[in-house]
Structures are given as C-alpha cells and as structure tokens.
Specification:
The longest helix has 37 residues. This protein has 23 helices and no strands. It is a multi-pass membrane protein.
Length: 477
C-alpha cells in the first residue's frame, strides 16, 4: 500500500499521529530530560487530540463532550484502570526486592552458586545466581546489588572484569523484559490479554536459552575487551574487600533466601497450569484455594511477607528499620506505577486513535510476519526514547487489536515474547540502564557501547529467532 492509497484508506492520519507522538517522546525524554510520567501523559493526550474526532468519539463514547475534554477523560480513565491492575504487584515486588537486599538473601544465593562453580567459573555463578535473583527485582536495583560482587571478584581473581559485569547484565536484562512482576511484562499481559501465570512460565523458560546465548556473547566480548577496574560510585575498592569477608552466619539459609523468589512464581504458574490442564471438579474445593493462592497479588504478598520476615530477623529485629525498608520500596514503586500506567495509557490511546488498525491495513495482503513487525517496532522505540518499559507498552498497544481479533496464526503469547525481546533492543545513551551499568561499573561511554550495547542487541536478536522457531513448531502453546 503506497502513501496515497494509505491516505485514501484512512490510515494516513493514525500513522502521522504515531510519528508525531514518538518524536515528542524522543525530544521530551531523550533531549530535554522531562520525567517519563509527564512525557508519556503528554504524548497520550497529544495522540487523542490529533486523532480524528468522529472516529475517537465512536470508539470511546462520551456523548455531549467536546473532543478535547473527551480525550482528557479517556486518558485519565485508562491511566487509572491500568494503575489499579498493576499497582499492587509493583508495590509488593519493590518491597520484596529491598528486603532481599537488606537481609542478605540475594547475596546468599549468589554465594552458593559460587561455592558450586568455584572462582574459576565465577562469571557462570553470577549468571545462574543472578538469574534467580533477578526474577522479582527491578533491573536497576538488581544491578546495584550484584556489581559490588563483580568488582570484589575482580579484586580476588585479577581478571575477567568485563565478563563479570556482562554476566550480571545478561542475567537481569531478559527477565526485566519478559517476567512478571517487572512493570513492562506486567502491563503487556493486561494490554495483550494473555494469561499472567502462563506468561510467567513461558517467559521464564524462554529467558533461559537467551541468557545462555548472552553468556557466550559475554565470553566473546571479554576476550576482546579487557576492561580495567576503576573507582566507581558506591563502595570504594577498599570497602569491596569486606564484601567477600561477610561470614555465612550473618546470612539467611539458601532455602529461606530462595523462598520469596520461587514461591510467587510457583503459585502463579501452578494456578495457570490447573486452569489449562486440570478440570475444576478434580480438585473440588481445592480449586478455589489454588486460584486464590495463585492470584498474582496474593502470591506476591506471600513472598513479600516472607522477605520482610527475613529482613526483620537479619537486620537487628528492628521494626523501625523494617518500616524504613518498606517505605523505600514503596517510594520506588510509586514512581514505577505512575510511569507504567502512563505508558499503558499512551499505548491504548494510540490504539483508540486507530494506529493499530492503520498498521493492520498497511500489512494487509503483504507477506509481513507480525512477530518480526512487533519486534522491529519495539527495537526502534527503545532506540528512539530509551525506556524498555515504554517501548513494550507502546508496541503492545499498537499490536493489541490484532492479537484480540483472533487474526494471529499462533498464540498471542508469541507476540508478548517478540515485543519483550525487542525491548532489549539497542541500549545507548538515552537509556537509564546504560548509565547505571556504565557508572556503577566504572566504564567509559565507549566501553559501555562496545560491551553492553552489543550484548543487549545480540540477546534481542536471539530472542526473536527463538520466538519465530517456537511459533512455527508449536503455534498453539
């Protein structure tokens, strides 16, 4: 479909709106450093105001209102709806993460993997232990947790600093894009209408081969780039020596440390498994109990309560300190919830402005693989404005119509995977994660680009290949 035909088909305006809103986001977030919540809210309103008034009114109701007022009301409603659906999970996950850090539970998991693999395979231990720890912890917090261990290992072994840093990155980056309770996947589940428990199971399983591929890329990059250990924000090099000397007696047991991480995942996945494969009459009253415990809010609450208990026990049994920890977690969660909800509102406003229908009309009659299209859109949006979460939410909002109208030749979960892997994409200087990795590791911008950026795109491409293969071999999931 050429441009003139597109205009005649009524898809030119939605695509023009999409381009304008993405350009606005790039300027606001990437150039002018406007807070993402305000940038996304502004882009959502712009998408509505620039949409065709008659089409928007037909899709959203609000008779008797002016177009401008209708857009504001719909944007506020969409933001509030998504905030209500994801707010509890993000808040609990944030508290859980803080408590795992303070109690030493996360440190314990990594140490046990180190004990199994030995220092000669310390990078592998960081990948394996970090993968488990990263499941419930947001990426920036996760990286802040493990980078002191990577720096301490470099002091102990005298080598492979690049490998240690990239091992942490490839362990946490994929789960950030694919596994609930991370905000991007959580919002995608809502927008694409896929089962939350199934997304945890599929996202976690599909993360494993991509992390394994990323580990091989990290080893290759380590051979090409022998980066030095420099002073960096946080612990000094002298203080890092103390990280490796903390006695095991001051840390929780391995089982107690893993329980807050694994319990929510098992409960959520178990409830979805029961729903898919076990009739309700087989379990009788147990069905209601399993569904309650497998509810993502309840499952995360149970894991968070256990993590809070560990933090209370291993930080001096102080209620005031525990209150401070939970307060820190909630402060972080509040910002994440607002950004996530605003991003979801922006994506949905694009969909209601007809962007999804326009994309669908453009690819109609063409041999366009929608998984490749979704992945490419997510990569470009990540490159343009820097945020993986915004990339996921925007792309999901655009592609949601196709997923919900039953036009896919495979399960919508594959769309979830393609978008999540695409959001790994191209991480460069407009991505906050780029600066977190570079600054806390003591790397220059060029060093970060030549290592982390290469690793992120390699895993993103590998994830697309994996998604395409699975969709071709097992389209129904």
């Amino acid at each position: 479909m050429d441009v003139s035909t597109a205009m005649q088909a009524g898809v030119g305006r939605p695509l023009w709106v999409l381009g304008l809103c993405v350009a606005l986001l790039v300027l606001l977030i990437g150039r002018w450093r406007v807070h993402p919540f305000l940038a996304l809210l502004g882009a959502a309103l712009l998408a509505g105001w620039c949409a065709d008034p008659a089409r928007f009114a037909a899709a959203n109701g609000g008779e008797g209102q002016s177009h401008a007022l209708r857009v504001v009301e719909v944007a506020a409603t969409e933001l509030g709806n998504l905030c209500g659906r994801v707010g509890i999970v993000i808040a609990l996950a944030s508290i859980l993460g803080v408590c795992l850090l303070e109690s030493g539970a996360a440190d314990k998991v990594v140490r046990r993997f180190l004990a199994v693999t030995g220092e000669a395979r310390a990078g592998l231990a960081l990948v394996c232990g970090g993968f488990l720890v990263s499941l419930p912890i947001f990426f920036d917090t996760f990286f802040m947790l493990l980078i002191p261990l990577a720096r301490a290992l470099r002091l102990r072994t005298g080598r492979d600093y690049t490998l240690y840093v990239l091992a942490i990155c490839c362990a946490g980056a994929v789960t950030h894009s694919l596994v609930i309770p991370h905000p991007g996947p959580l919002a995608m589940v809502e927008v694409l209408k896929v089962d939350a428990g199934a997304s945890v199971f599929v996202g976690t399983l599909c993360s494993i081969p991509v992390v394994a591929f990323g580990w091989q890329v990290a080893r290759w990059l380590n051979r090409r780039h022998d980066l030095p250990l420099r002073e960096a924000p946080g612990l000094s090099l002298a203080e890092l020596q103390q990280v490796t000397r903390r006695p095991e007696s001051e840390l929780p047991s391995l089982g107690a440390s893993l329980l807050p991480i694994l319990l929510p995942l098992v409960l959520i996945s178990g409830a979805s498994f029961r729903k898919a494969f076990v009739p309700a009459e087989v379990l009788g009253p147990g069905t209601a109990v399993l569904e309650l415990l497998g509810n993502r809010n309840v499952a995360l609450l149970l894991g968070t309560v256990w993590a809070m208990g560990l933090a209370y026990r291993y930080t001096g049994r102080s209620w005031s300190r525990l209150s401070r920890m939970t307060g820190q977690g909630l402060e972080t969660a509040g910002v994440v919830v607002l950004i996530t909800a605003a991003g979801g509102a922006f994506g949905l406003m694009l969909a209601r402005a007809g962007v999804g229908d326009a994309v669908q009309a453009l690819v109609a009659g063409r041999e366009v693989n929608l998984l490749v299209l979704a992945w490419t859109m997510a990569v470009l949006l990540k490159f343009a404005q820097g945020s993986a979460t915004v990339s996921m939410l925007t792309t999901a909002g655009i592609m949601a119509g196709m997923a919900q109208q039953g036009q896919l030749p495979y399960h919508p979960m594959y769309l979830f995977l393609a978008i999540g892997f695409g959001a790994l994409g191209i991480s460069w200087m407009n991505d906050s994660g780029f600066w977190v990795i570079g600054r806390l590791s003591g790397l220059t911008e060029r060093e970060t680009l030549s290592t982390w950026t290469v690793l992120a795109f390699s895993m993103s491409a590998a994830g697309l290949v994996l998604t395409l293969l699975l969709a071709a071999v097992y389209p129904g999931i």
